[in-house]
Amino acid sequence: MNSKLQTPIDYLKGVGPNRADLLRKELGIHTYQDLINLFPNRYLDRTQYYKITQLQRNNAEVQIIGRVVGLKEVAQGKSKRLVATFKDETGAMELVWFRGFKWLKESIKLNTDYVVFGKTNAFGSTFSMPHPEMELLIEHEKNLRSAMQPVYPSTEKLSNKGITNRVMSKIMQQLFLETHGKFEETLSVDLLSELKLISKSEALFNIHFPKNQELLARAQFRLKFEELFYIQLQLILKNLIHKSKIKGFPFDQVGEYFNTFFKQHLPFDLTNAQKRVIKEIRADLGSNAQMNRLLQGDVGSGKTIVALMSMLIALDNGFQACLMAPTEILSVQHYNGLLDLCKDLNISIKLLTGSTKTSDRRIIHEALENGELDILIGTHALLEDKVKFKNLGLAIIDEQHRFGVAQRSKLWRKNLTPPHILVMTATPIPRTLAMSVYGDLDISIIDELPPGRQPIKTVHRYDSNRLKVLRFVRDEIDKGRQVYIVYPLIQESENMDYKDLMDGYESIARDFPSPKYQISIVHGQMKPADKEFEMQRFIKGETQIMVATTVIEVGVNVPNASVMIIESAERFGLSQLHQLRGRVGRGAEQSFCILMTSHKLSNDSKTRLETMVKTSDGFEIAEVDLKLRGPGDIMGTQQSGVLNLKIADIVKDNDILKLARFHALKILKNDPRLVKPQHRPILFTYQQLAKYKNIWNYIS
Ligand code: ADP
Ligand code: MG
């Protein structure tokens, strides 16, 4: 390997201690290697000239040859701008300045060929270029730039301290001089030839100093492939090692509990998707390997019954099981639901949450340790060290997106032999993302809702239509339905949000006066016992309206509730809106979701609202969400290590990701320990990566 690459950046000619310090602090560049992996964000293409009619609404920098045929000052309110009409043989556009008029008016030559360069904006069908770089064509031809100019990631501090883009390019050139531009190949010869990839050295050269568009594209492809390939390789290897090394408890029998329940107590026929998923889980549990499975199913798709039946298999084999949910309300609901489903089964089930009394806790701890307790349901409280199982065989985590990956591994360590793990999530994760973030998990999907559900009617209404909405609500309540009204609660502005909620509550109380109407209210600042009391009143039908913050987002099940009103819906994220909507449509009645907003809506808000009105398919919604927010935001900081990619983009480079996963799988299938000589570069690179930045740290 090119040992020079580990040289501290201070030693590179032209860097020195001060710049080295800045590079370390601002961009995390410590060595030559780090520098070479600082890829440009974009390139200024000075090799191409555009015609005015070719301009697209994509806001990229373009270069155009043409003439200024007119100049005028335009006043708009207090501000003024200088507008030039710029023409080529295909059409006309505008050049715009907001300052420096005097000098510009004196120096711009009319009807003379210029090259202008900059970003364009479109107004209607006219394009304009604000503050263009301008050069006379004759001058331009004299010092013609022959290549695309890279633009490196930077920070304000870097440019303030003089490390401009030009300086970065110089430093990069120096690095190529000192290393002779020769870099160890990191992919196998087979991969290079099969995928017609350019070599590592060629790719690095062209990513920093692209000779032309085609070589740049090939360099990008090769480096993106490589990046995604090694992530997939690590994830798949991890999964394989799990399966071979980590012996699980083999649950070889499906016995009394499961069969009795299946034959006598199932309250409904399982959907085909539920049956399929239960089979997948059964196969995992019956194998010798520890199960690590992600169960995805939209809200209301019936994951709970799958969880229960999986737990019954554990019990049939003499093991205990636990089910962890993110909120107290949800834990209580699971507890009551499962108690009811299991009432004839002679199983001991208990609930453990933050508000369980100390005396009860002690009893639970004891029963857990001596094995009298079969199933424990609860919140994070299950993770406490004091909670010890006699023999935990299966741990289920509901609504994964609320839990970090750390918790997953904490459950793992509850036994000497790790329990089987089933993670259930109602937020569908786009496949590409699932592949990257949960590449080490097996995935089951419930893609079918129980029969007889009517699709929820979703509409978007402005606040100005509130009266109509209220009339509708009254009609529904008079028909015997129940209604949720949800307010946003966003951390930073909690006090204001809280006031919104209370104001809302008061005005609803005026519109729906007691004793005819009863209203529950639930929010985060209430004591758990009070929340529970209010929840129960709504569940029992004693109240018709539930005013709440997003506390109710997850899992709550009240089949008679058929209207969901979301206030300030523009402030919610897509997956949250989808989750909230999932609270209704659980009974036989036609259900409605009303998204209330003000008139001021950003483009993203509009897209979110339109998506909600248009579809109720969780996977489709997840795809839109991914495009709007990007992967880092969706998965939270836990996984950002995996998603913090240098060059690839999980959303845009979906196809390369699939290709990378395909080849990683193929190679590992044929050579699981990468010991074959042709895989030496892969093994070597893999070991290097594992040493420097073990992505396993980010994933359980
Ligand atoms: P989620 O996947 O959101 O956790 P639940 O497990 O809470 O969904 O199920 C939602 C509702 O659908 C519950 O009332 C449950 O009893 C019901 N249900 C689940 N599976 C079926 C089925 N196969 N047929 C009819 N109803 C079902
Ligand atoms: Mg659920």
Automatic annotation (TrEMBL):
Residues 284-446 form the Helicase ATP-binding domain. PANTHER family: ATP-DEPENDENT DNA HELICASE HOMOLOG RECG, CHLOROPLASTIC. It is an enzyme of class 5 (isomerase). The keyword Transmembrane does not apply. The gene is recG. Plays a critical role in recombination and DNA repair. Helps process Holliday junction intermediates to mature products by catalyzing branch migration. Has replication fork regression activity, unwinds stalled or blocked replication forks to make a HJ that can be resolved. Has a DNA unwinding activity characteristic of a DNA helicase with 3'-5' polarity. It comes from the Bacteria. It comes from Formosa sediminum. It catalyses: ATP + H2O = ADP + phosphate + H(+); Couples ATP hydrolysis with the unwinding of duplex DNA by translocating in the 3'-5' direction. CDD domains: DEXHc_RecG (cd17992), RecG_wedge_OBF (cd04488). Belongs to the helicase family. RecG subfamily. GO terms for biological process: DNA recombination; DNA repair. The keyword Glycosyltransferase does not apply. Keywords: ATP-binding, DNA damage, DNA recombination, DNA repair, DNA-binding, Helicase, Hydrolase, Isomerase, Nucleotide-binding. The lineage of its organism: Bacteria, Pseudomonadati, Bacteroidota, Flavobacteriia, Flavobacteriales. This is ATP-dependent DNA helicase RecG. Its EC number is 5.6.2.4. Residues 465-632 form the Helicase C-terminal domain. One of its GO terms (molecular function) is 3'-5' DNA helicase activity.
